[in-house]
Design goal:
By secondary structure, this protein is mostly helical. It contains 4 helices and no strands. The protein has a single domain, classed as Non-ribosomal Peptide Synthetase Peptidyl Carrier Protein, Chain A. Helix 1 crosses helix 2.
């Protein structure tokens, strides 16, 4: 995948996070690619994780196994989420 496609996917995921979770007080530029999404970082919680997971499955047509031990790692930041979506779509 080209850098431009990756960059566009990262922006798309940031917009999806904002839209799906109703974070109207922040913009995509406010979310760092490597910023932790949960806890200390963006401050998302487990309910947000479910909402975000559903939004990603719906938007990208991929299946996310919530019980897989590496799923938490994929959701750690926007960059890892973009890599996960790319890998799932290629599979």
């Amino acid at each position: 995948m080209s850098d431009l496609n990756t960059h566009n996917l990262v922006l798309e995921i940031k917009d999806l996070i904002i839209e799906a979770l109703g974070l109207e007080d922040i913009s995509a530029q406010d979310i760092g690619d490597d910023q932790t999404l949960f806890g200390e970082g963006l401050g998302l919680d487990s309910v947000d994780a479910l909402e975000l997971g559903l939004a990603i499955q719906k938007k990208y047509g991929i299946k996310i196994d919530a019980d897989a031990k590496d799923t938490r790692n994929h959701f750690s930041n926007v960059a890892s989420l973009a890599a996960f979506v790319t890998a799932k779509q290629a599979a």
